Amino acid sequence: MSSKEEIIQKLTEEKESLLLQVADLNYLLELREEELNELKNSSKSLQELKSKIEEQLYDFEHMQNLLGQQQQLAIGQSNREIAMEKELLNTLDKEKSYYTLKEQFHSTSVALSDLQTQLKDMMNIYKELLACKNKLAASESNLEITLLDNQFLKEELEQLHQTIQNKSI
After folding, report:
1. Residue 2 — left, alpha, or beta (φ > 0 → left; ψ -120 to 50 → alpha)?
2. Residue by residue, what is the 3-state secondary structure of the chain?
3. Cα dihedral sign for 108, 114, 115, 117?
4. Which residues contact 9 (CB under 8 A, 6 or more apart)?
5. What pTM did the predictor assign?
6. What number of other Cβ atoms are within 10 A of residue 8's Cβ?
7. Residue 128, CA atoms < 13 Å, CB-side half-sphere
8. Which of 25, 37, 84, 169 is least buried, going by the fewest C-beta atoms within 10 A?
9. Distance (Å, whole) CA 117 – CA 113
10. Rounded CA gap, 105 and 112, in Å?
11. What confidence tens digit (pLDDT) does each residue in 57-115 have?
12. Cα distance between residue 69 and residue 42, in whole Å
């Protein structure tokens, strides 16, 4: 073989080797392009995922705000409920006091009515006593007059007896 043929053969081998290397490089380039496309798609997916996460985070924050507002409303309602309960208990205490006072008033009214009745009875008894006292005073006066009349009559009778005895003597 001649040196030309050897060179051609070497060149052919080198060419084949280079073609194989080019094919390998093309294959590697395709793989890299696929990886690059996957990374681009992955990047898009990551951006979409990031966007979804941000959206969910916003929704979560909004829900937390709503929950905070609802908790404040619940606390306010609880406070109002406690205030209303206290007011109701206060009203019930006042109503109980009212009925106690009403009962006491009724009892006092009944007692006053009894006392007024007793007073009227006592006034009637006093009037009767006064009338009896007046009758007694009148009777005593009549008795004194009658006693005086009797005394006077006795004296007259004695004088008459003495006069009669004096005349008979």
Report:
1. beta
2. CCHHHHHHHHHHHHHHHHHHHHHHHHHHHHHHHHHHHHHHHHHHHHHHHHHHHHHHHHHHHHHHHHHHHHHHHHHHHHHHHHHHHHHHHHHHHHHHHHHHHHHHHHHHHHHHHHHHHHHHHHHHHHHHHHHHHHHHHHHHHHHHHHHHHHHHHHHHHHHHHHHHHHHHC
3. positive
4. 1
5. 0.42
6. 13
7. 6
8. 169
9. 6
10. 10
11. 999 999 999 999 999 999 999 999 999 999 999 999 999 999 999 999 999 999 999 99
12. 39
Residue type present at position 84: M
Residue 107: Cβ-neighbour burial (10 angstroms; 0-12, 13-18, 19+) = exposed
**What are 115-147's pLDDT values in tens digits?**
999 999 999 999 999 999 999 999 999 999 998
**Six-digit token string for 148:** 């005086």
Residues in the chain: 169
In angstroms, rounded to a whole number, what is the distance separating the alpha carbons of residues 84 and 113? 42
For residues 30 and 39, give the distance between their C-alpha atoms in angstroms, rounded to a whole number: 14
